[in-house]
Design goal:
With 381 residues, the protein is mainly α. It is 70% helix and 5% strand.
């Protein structure tokens, strides 16, 4: 917990509310992954704690990276946004090269790093939010009256969306579009610009959803999963059964039946369903309340940062809040049958080292922004 004053490194406690909420979510993620993956890991790896041990190692590594990010002054993140953007573009191109990108279940979204896999789309979310936060600071009020200033980040987003759809990763494309549009809107873009582009983006995403047969099948399964419960509607049906079995208080931690190979790879995108089965509606509500408090606190810090004159911090907090809330809404909405099936990690909780790494990295930057707010207040006293 640090803040730079001249050449002296001074320690300060981080924001207690965000720290406690994030630690609770990380702990719940470790418990949920352990419970949901134990039988799967025992069958396929001969070690029931395979995913648990790897996830703990991901947590330790991510916290280490997060601490390193925390001690870096925020102006460095603001000034290096273009570098992260270029790196993200290069990685999205590399992953599409045959023999370089790793294909899993028909999607080429991973780069193999030997004993681990790296998902460039998660890095792209971080890079886009960091770049756009700095861009909005540099452009200032021009973004609200200059069409070209508004168009530049849109064109960059379009490039990312095209590359992501070539993998394909429709979910990441939707999240990035939503985050960019919301950040631009909160930055003061004219409403007419925003509405016109939102209409175009909605039409574009709708056409994309209908352009691929597997996406059409998912839409049909979402509308009536019971019409094809053993094929296209299988995952959703099994997820809904998990919610039904959980009732109010659940069947008990570790006692899920759906994780016994009924719900495929239950420790990934449908981990919330297993949690709801084992802890019931009360356990599911607990997670929703933790996320609500977490996002609300980040938005509040963004407002405080803007009041202190740190507009990069304000834009970054807004982008991170939208990113987290969007992923939570999509993941839980899919698991409950409220949205069409789409692969999307649940932040801090779902299995996925790359997702956890960049979520904690962005959280660390938010905590550093909160430190800057304290320093500005101290300097004004």
């Amino acid at each position: 917990m640090t803040a730079l004053r001249g050449h002296q490194l001074e320690l300060h406690p981080p924001d207690k509310i965000i720290s406690i909420l994030s630690l609770f979510l990380i702990l719940i993620g470790a418990i949920a992954i352990s419970s949901s993956s134990i039988d799967y890991a025992a069958k396929y790896f001969g070690n029931p704690w395979y995913y648990t041990l790897r996830h703990i190692s991901y947590i330790i590594f991510s916290l280490g990276v997060g601490f390193c990010a925390y001690v870096i002054p925020t102006h460095i993140w603001r000034d290096t946004g273009i570098l992260w953007l270029l790196a993200a573009t290069a990685l999205l191109i590399f992953v599409l090269i045959p023999g370089v990108g790793k294909e899993v279940n028909g999607s080429q979204r991973w780069l193999s790093l030997g004993f681990v896999s790296f998902q460039p789309s998660e890095f792209t979310k971080f890079a886009m939010i960091t770049f756009l936060s700095g861009y909005l600071v540099r452009q200032g009020e021009k973004i609200s009256r200059d069409w070209l200033c508004f168009l530049k980040p849109i064109l960059i987003t379009l490039v990312f969306v095209v590359l992501l759809l070539m993998e394909p990763d429709f979910g990441a494309a939707v999240i990035i579009i939503g985050s960019v549009f919301t950040m631009l809107f909160l930055a003061g873009v004219r409403l007419i610009y925003f509405l016109c582009l939102a209409a175009l983006a909605t039409s574009f995403l709708f056409m994309l959803a209908l352009s691929a047969p597997y996406r059409v099948q998912r839409l049909v399964a979402y509308i009536d999963p019971w019409s094809d419960p053993y094929a296209n509607g299988y995952q959703l049906v099994q997820s809904l059964i998990a919610f039904g079995r959980g009732e109010w208080f659940g069947v008990g931690l570790g006692n899920s039946v759906q994780k016994l190979f009924y719900l495929p790879e239950a420790h990934t995108d449908f981990i919330f369903a297993i949690w709801a089965e084992e802890l019931g509606a009360i356990g599911a509500l607990l997670i929703l309340l933790l996320y609500a408090g977490f996002v609300a606190r980040i938005i509040w810090l963004g407002w405080q940062s803007a009041s202190a004159g740190n507009f990069f911090g304000a834009h970054f907090c807004n982008g991170f809040a939208v990113l987290i809330s969007g992923q939570v809404i999509i993941n839980i909405g899919v698991a409950m049958g409220l949205l069409p099936t789409k692969g999307m990690t649940l932040p801090f909780i779902s299995w996925g080292g790359t997702s956890l790494l960049f979520t904690i990295l962005m959280l660390s930057i938010v905590l550093r922004i909160e430190q800057d707010i304290k320093l500005r207040k101290q300097s004004n006293e």
